[in-house]
Amino acid sequence: MGDEEKPRCSGAWTESRYQNFIISALRKATGRWGPKNYCIKVASDKAKKLIESDLVKYKEYLTLKGKFKTGPFICEHCNTIQMASIPTPKDSSSKKKSISNKLSDHIEPIVDPNVGFTTFDEWIKRGFPEKESFQALCHACHQVKCKVETKIRTDRQREEKGVLKGDDYKLAVRIEGKIVGHIKGVDGGFAYFPKGKGMPRGYIFKTIKECENNFIEEKAKIKLKNK
Ligand SMILES: [Zn+2]
């Protein structure tokens, strides 16, 4: 880990830290990107029209208005009347009393979770598209979408690294039929846990291949020791 190459910022930053720095600046700029607000305006107009023409919806709106005060819009996913801000849900990490419920979402995620980051050009193209590429979502729908994307992304990353996590992978290390320890999937790779000891044996294998190679070496070492 310590000997990672640091070609950026006068030798202080790795390529990935540099990449994260630029992307975080770009991400902030997407908030000021005009076309991003268009879907919010459409969703608010839609809600106003619906409230005006539908008595049931109007009553629904009045109840919401009593609770939340801020303006209504239609979430393009659950298709319900939503208010622009709502009390912070219990499972949220936010310390604020209320959170924004009116989110302009990139229909196609800026970074495709199936592919990952490619180039800054591609990021900019996907991050600043025209108005048709955005949808107004409520907080709950946005959360669900994010969770799905996160799952796709982490699964892909693990697959790329040949790494599984936690209980996904556990291999008993046997010497002449006796279990002498386990190779277990841990965060970032695989570790060897000798039997009866909770701590890994000082190293983590990054890939399944590496793990297999070292597993054979380790097995041989134990075998020699015991003889
Ligand atoms: Zn929704």
Describe the structure.
This protein is of the alpha+beta class. The protein folds into 2 domains: 31-161, no CATH class; 166-225, no CATH class. Helix content is 44%, strand content 19%. It contains 6 helices and 10 strands. It has helices spanning 15-30, 35-53, 55-68, 120-127, 139-161, 208-226; strands spanning 72-74, 81-83, 85-87, 98-100, 103-106, 134-137, 170-175, 178-186, 189-194, 204-205. The strands form 4 sheets. The chain has a 4-stranded antiparallel β-sheet, covered by helices on one side. Strands 1-2 form a two-stranded antiparallel ribbon. A two-stranded antiparallel ribbon has the order 3-4. Strand 1 and strand 2 (81-83) form a beta hairpin. Helix 1 (15-30) packs parallel to helix 4 and helix 2 (35-53) packs across helix 3 (55-68). The longest helix is centred in the middle third of the chain and has 23 residues, at 139-161. It is elongated, with a radius of gyration of 26 Å. The mean pLDDT is 83. Zinc ion (ZN) is lined by residues 75, 77-78, 137-138, 140-141.
